[in-house]
Write a structure and sequence with these properties.
The protein is α+β, with helices and mostly antiparallel strands and about 625 residues long. It has 18 helices and 17 strands. α7 packs across α14 and α8 runs antiparallel to α14.
Length: about 625
């Protein structure tokens, strides 16, 4: 592999605030920009570019969603926390030296919408490499991913400097060793001890059921079994009774039949009442005979005299009345006797001629009442023929009520049986658990004893390794301090301090005052350390450069403007030293004045959202990132 690579282009798709954009790091003649500045106001998207490069190199952070490059924090804001498409970043790189476009390497990382892990694709010319080969290329180009939340030793920002400050002081050491890509045995032993501690805690938390509970559980189980047995007998009796006494009609059918019968009964009562009201009285028969005689004489054209003799055919009149079937034989016989008399008083006939219409209406009412009485009687007889009587309906209703009660009793009994079966199952499960626990408890005691013995051994090994690591870190820091001093001697323009390695009691870097040999310690924040902010920042940058040189990464150095307290001549020398020593530099700053400090700058990439709405896309990408 070559020593380093130049960045040719960056293609971004659905990454943070960028939907679609391609930034080319070549000029109009396609010459490489080895030393460049990215500038613009805060919030314009400079960090998004750096994060995109870093994510392409090392991928999605696993674990807490608070991490900068965790999955959900990569999503564009309009996705509202749910991935709606593929996320991808492609870096086009070219080896430093006499190489042309045919040697360019395309490193692409994709987080698919339906995938759990990132996928990698490396393309060189016409050759596409599979996932395993692509991973090897990524490792050779970008170096081993550091085991931290974020960062890379070829990207130097405030975060990297803060963690490096913790490493080169007496606080921590793992960060430094991670960036040196060294696998420390202590990490493996720590993980093993952590597993043992978890085993001990897990076993210790277990609350094993007491075997003394077994007699009580056995008694409860036997008692519950007796109750279930009795309920099963009762259930069988109820089921048998229900099957044998299932009513012929349902409650709905019964209600409809009762309504039909009640209506027919009421019709019969009403018809009887009406017939009784319209039935002829004995004293009305003479009037009715006179009306009928008057009607007959009138229809025959025979005038009614005030009196008449027996010359009229009373036999014929009586025969007519018999045909009506409205008169008894006594009445018609009496009329026949008139033929034997000498005459008849016709005053009644004359009087009844005026009441003929009333009698016609009355006879009609009588006929209607009689028909209603006959029809209602027939309807009742028809219902009785199919078994619907007042007595039968009452019996059916009683049977239905008893059937409903038995059915409800069966439901309650079935529910009680189900609950008791569930209780019985729980008791039997608890009994089995206790009996299993006697075996498992014995096994866990063996595991617990083994884990505790292993921890005793691990503690001894870790103590030995800690002691070895102490010397190991001294050796590493001794080697690193040489390169730190190398960069410090070139970059520092004030000449007041020199980097120093203090080996005891804890290995750490500090600064020695050249005038009085006093020692000043790195400032972690405004309340700690004795060195000034500018001195601490310069020492941390020189340390980052020394580690980056040894880390195996072959990317251009990306230097964020994280050294605000360093004097301007030193900053100017820092930028020129990095660009010369590492052959390429991307300097990121918010300030126009600092953007002009780089000598032999190949271009300034200005990032601005002045002409961009919410998201950067293919239409507004050129307005977002412009070369000057």
């Amino acid at each position: 592999m070559v020593d380093r690579y130049n960045l040719i282009s960056l293609r971004v798709h659905n990454f943070m605030g960028v939907e679609q954009s391609e930034i080319k790091f070549t000029d109009q003649e396609k010459n490489l920009r080895k030393v460049m500045t990215i500038t613009g106001h805060q919030g314009g998207g400079k960090s998004t570019i750096i994060f995109a490069i870093q994510w392409c190199a090392y991928g999605t952070s696993i674990g807490a969603t608070s991490r900068r490059l965790s999955r959900t924090r990569l999503y564009p804001g309009k996705w509202d926390g749910k991935q709606l498409g593929d996320i991808s970043v492609t870096l086009r790189l070219r080896p430093v030296g006499d190489y042309g476009p045919d040697s360019d390497i395309f490193c692409k990382r994709v987080l698919h919408e339906d995938g759990e892990l990132d996928s990698l694709q490396v393309t060189i010319g016409p050759d596409n490499f599979d996932e395993i080969e692509s991973k090897n290329y990524f490792r050779q180009i970008f170096g081993k991913p550091p085991q931290i939340e974020q960062g890379a030793m070829w990207v130097i920002r405030k975060e990297e400097m803060q963690r490096m400050a913790e490493t080169i002081t007496k606080t921590k050491s793992s960060y430094f060793l991670d960036f040196m890509n060294l696998d420390v045995p202590l990490n493996v032993l720590s993980e093993l001890k952590s597993d043992n501690d978890n085993t001990i805690e897990r076993i210790g938390r277990k609350n094993w059921p007491s075997v003394h509970q077994l007699p009580i559980l056995d008694a409860s189980r036997n008692s519950l079994r007796d109750v279930i047995r009795e309920d099963k007998v009762e259930e069988e009796k109820l089921i048998k009774w229900i099957n044998e006494n299932k009513p012929q009609k349902t409650q709905k059918d019964l209600q409809e039949a009762k309504e039909t019968f009640d209506k027919a009964k009421q019709k019969f009562v009403d018809a009887e009442k009406s017939l009784s009201e319209n039935r002829l009285r004995r004293d009305e028969l003479v009037d009715l005979v006179n009306v009928l005689l008057s009607a007959k004489l009138d229809s025959s054209g025979i005038p009614v005299e005030p009196s008449f003799n027996s010359k009229y055919d009373w036999e014929d009149i009586a025969s007519y009345l018999e045909k009506t079937r409205r008169f008894t034989p006594n009445v018609t016989n009496s009329i026949k006797e008139l033929a034997k008399s000498s005459g008849y008083d016709t005053s009644g006939l004359l009087d009844r001629q005026e009441s003929k219409e009333e009698w016609i209406a009355k006879i009609r009412e009588l006929r209607s009442a009689l028909n209603d009485q006959i029809n209602s009687t027939n309807e009742i007889r028809q219902l009785e023929s199919i078994g619907l009587t007042q007595e039968n309906l009452q019996e059916i209703s009683r049977t239905n009520l008893e059937f409903e009660k038995k059915t409800k009793d069966l439901g309650k009994l079935s529910e009680r049986l189900s609950q008791n079966h569930e209780k019985l199952s729980g008791i039997e499960s608890e009994i089995k658990k206790i009996r299993r626990s006697e075996t498992n408890e014995s096994k866990d005691k063996i595991k617990l004893d083994l884990a505790e013995r292993q921890n005793n051994l691990l503690n001894g090994l870790m103590d030995s390794i800690e002691e070895a690591n102490h010397q190991y870190k001294i050796d590493l820091l001794s080697q690193t301090i040489k390169r730190v001093k190398y960069f410090w001697d070139i970059i520092d323009q004030r000449r007041e301090y020199v980097p120093l390695l203090i080996e005891t009691p804890t290995p750490q870097f500090a600064l020695e005052n050249l005038s009085d040999s006093s020692v000043r310690y790195v400032q972690l924040d405004s309340s700690t350390g004795t060195a000034s902010g500018g001195e601490s920042q310069l020492l941390l940058i020189c340390t980052c450069l020394a580690v980056s040189e040894s880390s195996g990464a072959k990317m251009p150095i990306i230097l964020d403007d994280c050294f605000t307290d360093v004097d301007e001549p030193t900053v100017k020398k820092l930028l020129s030293t990095v660009s010369e020593h590492f052959n390429s530099l991307i300097f990121v700053t918010n300030y126009e004045a600092k953007a002009k400090l780089i000598q032999n700058n190949d271009g300034v990439l200005r990032i601005s959202r002045d002409h961009v709405d919410t998201y950067v896309n293919a239409k507004n990408s050129e307005n977002w990132a412009k070369w000057e």
